[in-house]
Amino acid sequence: MNQPNDEYIVRNCSFTNCVNSAGAGGAFNIDISNGAVVAFFSSLFVGCRSQLGGGGIFASISSGGQIILDNLCEFYQCKTYGNGGGIYIFIDFTIQSSFIIKDAIFQGCQAMNNYFIQYSYSQTGFGGGVFLGVYGDYDPSINHIDLHGMNISNNSADKYGQSLFVVMRDIIEWCQYGTQGEYVKGNYSDTYSNETDLVGIPMDLSTFNSSSLQTIEQQQQPLELWWRILGILKSAKVIVNESNPIGKLIFHLEGQEMTPGYLNIKIFELRDKTQEEIEQQQKEMNYNFNKNNFKSQKDHSLQSQIAPEHKNVNQQQISISSNLKFNQTLHNSENEIIYPPEDGSNIPIKVVTEIRGSLKAQKATFGLNDYEWLNYKQKVYGVLISNDRNIFTGKQGAENASIILDVVEENDKNALSIWIIIIIIIGSIVIFGIGLFSIIFVVYINV
Fold first, then answer.
1. Is residue 148 within 8 Å of 179, Cβ to Cβ?
2. Any stretches that span the bilayer, and where are they (predicted)?
3. Separation of first and last alpha carbons in the chain
């Protein structure tokens, strides 16, 4: 396939137990160049195997060639005594070429060591499902390598990359392009998948093919480590207001490297409070209560002058969870919670980014209506954050370096003001009644 208008389409085909016992590619060995396109749609590869790489497909792509897998292509129990149990792809990016997986599954495929060809042993047994090797420099922004539709399950490799192994000089930039490795990971889960599923090495394919096993082992690593962003937590505060109808608990966090849409918060019991801490807390509560009492009349007067649509601007920006499934979904264990729950029943955490000179600061906010689990009068709580619900970090981005949760207890000033007004009115009525009764009584006596 080497002409600009060449287009080879494989649609709704099945390839079962295809074998290449002397070379690469159990079912297909394809050379794609000069802008030619090869596409596989809804095709099935079962039990295909090869001696030198690509149990199902071996493809060499150069000079603008393209290969596409779409509409549920399946590679099932394919294997090779080389690299890429399901498919082996090598791309020469001297002229931009393309490898796109839109919809394909690799299940139960194997990449095994080749003991038959002694000189190639060090470079075999990589990429149980997919092996991707790149010559030259790759610019991730052109999106010519896109594995969004890659689904992996129960693949294995004798060396590295149980499902995927990538050899690419610009692999770090590729992993970090987009959000959370989106062009790399397919259905890989940062939370539950094994890091050994996706592995790679930052070197050119020609260098890889001549490297010793020791060199490869020293430089390879799980791809997730290159796209993973560890959050930095600087402060954590919760405002407790049991009479607040829009959120009994409002959490405010400040930090950096918090990814919107991916951020998770872990809150857990650190220890019991000391008697001294409990007494100090009570003093602060009494002080705040008296302070609020003193200011309540003035605050009520000022609030009454504000248009209703502007009263709760900050409150309207906070995501409040109804927590209908709080006990079942939010508690990770008896003494900790992770928010939001994985079942998607709650609103994601709101993250706002502020640029302060050369620094990027972030604020995260969310609310909960269920407050009874937070025993803040007797317990000290720690807080950690995570962008993958797997590695939780805190102070200076260090794993498990928790920040102490600052608890601020508030009373509803509006409710307090209303009660004060009611008491004043009732008191005035009582005083007026007593005065009126006294006058009537005096008049009656004189008569």
1. no
2. 418-445
3. 124
